[in-house]
Amino acid sequence: MQTLMDEKVRPALSAREVEVLLAWIVRDSKDDVARSLYISPATVGTHIARVRDKYEAVGRSAKSKAALVARALQDGYITLDEL
């Protein structure tokens, strides 16, 4: 019987979701991310919520910022050099 760890399920994140996720990881606040990407803080929140929902949908919950960093690293969406 295979588990999720044996067959790591990678959610399909859009390029924009990855861009916003990385910006949010390396900045202190959603307001800083919003200013840097010329979007509203609410839009930043929407992208992060969608990323979390996609991880939840594949059974790999990421409820904290640290968990999202770990998941994104595991799945190759970001690298240590980008952090």
From TrEMBL:
Domain of life from the UniProt record: Bacteria
InterPro entries cross-referenced by the UniProt entry: Sig_transdc_resp-reg_C-effctor, Tscrpt_reg_LuxR_C, WH-like_DNA-bd_sf
Claim: DNA-binding is one of the keywords in the record: yes
Keywords recorded for this protein, A-Z: DNA-binding
Keyword GTP-binding: no
A GO BP entry: regulation of DNA-templated transcription
Organism of origin: Rhodococcoides kroppenstedtii
Residues of the HTH luxR-type domain: 10-72
GO molecular function: DNA binding
One of the Pfam families matching this protein, by short name: GerE
Protein name according to UniProt: DNA-binding transcriptional regulator, CsgD family
Residue ranges of the TM segments: none
